[in-house]
C-alpha cells in the first residue's frame, strides 16, 4: 500500500491556522502567569478553538462535525503538543466521537482525561483515578489499556486536588463508581494516535528550542552547536522526532482504510512517548544551568511529557499491545 | 497524509507479486566469490527478459519508464517475496545507473545503462581512499590530462565487488583547486592496464571488498560524467540515490529479520527454563521496542519518498533514515545474540552469527553514524560548522 505522508493542502492549512492560533493566544510563555495554569488560558480561548472546528474535525457532518478523518485530527494534536496545550483539548476531540458530538464540536461541552492510578483490570470495582484539568468538565474520558469509556463528570464526585509535578496542569484524585462504567468500551486507537501526535509535537518543540539555543549560546569562542557533543545530541533529537511523527502519520493514514495492522498506533505512541521524554531531557542538558532553572520553559516540556506518557496504560502496556499484534 | 495507491497501481502490484512468486530463484545465493557474481547477474538477466528491470529508468535505455511509485511497489514486493539482494548489481542499479540518468551524456547513457539492466556489466565504487574516508573531499588519487585521456595514479579502498567489476564510478583529483572544487567523476574500465586489485577480508570472514591501485591508468576524457572539476556535485547526487527507494529493500529485509526474531522467541526456552523466551517480561519489552523502531524506520522512509515525489533530488534528510537503519540493524542482531545464548557462537548452523558480524558495516559504509549526525546537524537543523 503506497501512502503519501506529506500533508495534503487541507492538512497543511489546518496545521497552519491552528498553529497560528496557538502562537497568538496560547504561547508557552503563558505559563509565566499562574493564572493561566490548569487549562485556564485554554478555557478563555475555548470558543475560538471551537470556531476553528478543532473539536469536531474528524466527526462526520451529519453528526455535527467537520467531516475530516483522524489524519487531520493528528495535525491539530501535533500543534497542541508544540504549545503544551491542556490535555483536555485532546480528551474533548476524542469525546466528540464517543458522545454528544454536536455539543463537543460547538464547544459547549468539554471532556477531561481520567487516568487509573493502578493497572486497570476491569470495571467491576471502584476505579481510583487522576483527573487532569477536569475542573468544570462535563465528561471524563477513562483511558485504559482495555479501552476507553466516556463517563459523566458527576461519576467522579468530590475530587480532591493534589499538587502535581507538572504544576501547570490541574491534578486531582477521584473515584469512579463501577456503575458509571456501563457502555461498552471503545478501543483507544484514536486516543493512541492523538496522544502520539501531541507527544511528537512536544518532542519537536524541545528540539527546536535546543537547536535555537545551540546556535546562539557561545563558549570557547564559538556557538556550542558547532561542537559535535551538542550537534550529535541535536541530531539524535531530530531522529526521535522524525521517527515518532512519521509512524504517527503512517498509522493515521492507514487508520481510515479499514485494514490497519494491529499495533501500528501503539508503536507510534511508544516511540512518541520516548521521543518526548528523551528530547525534553536533552533540551534541559543543552541549556546547561539555565535549563535547570524555573525561569527557562525547558522544564515544562519534561513535566508535560511525564504526565502524558502515563495515559492509556503507559510504556509497558504499549509494549504488550505491540507484541499481541504479532502472530 | 493519505493513501495514494490507485487501482492501476494495485493492479501493477498484483502483476509484480505473481511474477516474483513464480520466478524468484529457489537455490540459495552463494555467500561470496565468482559464483555469487554469476548468480546475481543471472537473476538480473531473468528480470530484464521478463520486462522488470529498471522500472523507473527511461525506455530508450531498456527501462520501463514508469514512476517512482511503481519503482517503490516493485521494491516492496521484491523484498516481500524473499528475492535475493541485488548484490553485485547494486552499484550499477542504485548508484552509477541513476547518476548517469541525471548527469550523463546521451552517449554515456546509451553505452552503459543497457548493460546494467541486462545483468551483463557489473559496477563498483571508487570514492573512499586510505587517507580519505569520512573526509572524502581530501581525496588524493590524481588524474592528469594527456591528449584525449586522463592518466590516473593513486589508490581506492572499500571497493565492494571490485575484483568482479567491469566498470567503476571513480572520483579523481583533476586540478589543484582546493578540496571539492578540483574533483571529477569518471567511468573507469576495470580491465585497463595499470590496475591492481587486492581483496580485503572483513571481520565477518567474507571478502566483499578490495583495495584498488592505479599506476598510470589511461581513461578517455569522454568518460568524465558532468564537467571536469565538477565531480563533487555528481558524487552528491550519487550518494542521494543510495538513500532513495533502493533502501526500501534493505528495510523490508530488516522487518523480516525482526519477525524471525519474534518467532524465535516463541520457540526457544526463556531464562526461567520453564516457558518460552517471549514470556519473559524483559525480552518481550525489548522485542516490542525493536518492532516499533522498525515500523518507524519504514514510516520515515515513506515520509522521505513522499517528499522526493515533490522535490525530485533527494536531500540531506535521507541521513535520518540511514542513521536509524545503521543503529537499528546492529541493535537487532546484538539482541538476537543475547536471545540465542551459546547457540549463537556456532557458525555454520544458523545465519545469526554471520549477520551479527556483518551488521557492523551499516554504521560505517557510505558515511559513518558520526558523519551522518554531523550532516543532520548542519544541513537539516542548520547548526554551525566547527571552527577549524
Give the proportion of residues in helices of chain A: 40-55%
**End-to-end gap of chain B:** 43 Å
What's the count of strands of chain A? Answer: 9
Low-confidence runs of chain B: none
Structural category of chain B is alpha+beta
Global outline of chain B: globular
Measure the end-to-end span of chain A.
20 Å
| Multimerization status | heterodimer
Q: Residue-averaged pLDDT of chain A, rounded?
A: 94
Name the strands of the widest sheet of chain B in spatial order: 2-5-6-9
Number of strands of chain B: 9
Note down, in words, how this protein is organized:
The complex is a heterodimer of chains A (327) and B (388). By secondary structure, chain A is of the alpha+beta class. Helices cover 50% and strands 12% of the residues of chain A. Chain A is built from twelve helices and nine strands. In chain A, strands 5-4-2-3-7-6 form a six-stranded mixed β-sheet. Chain A has a two-stranded antiparallel sheet with strand order 8-9. The two termini of chain A are 20 Å apart. By secondary structure, chain B is an alpha+beta fold. Chain B is built from eleven helices and nine strands. In chain B, helix 4 (90-103) packs antiparallel against helix 5 (106-117) and helix 7 (247-267) packs parallel to helix 9 (318-340). The longest helix of chain B is centred in the C-terminal third of the chain and has 31 residues, at 281-311. Chain B is globular and about 75 Å long. The mean pLDDT of chain B is 91.
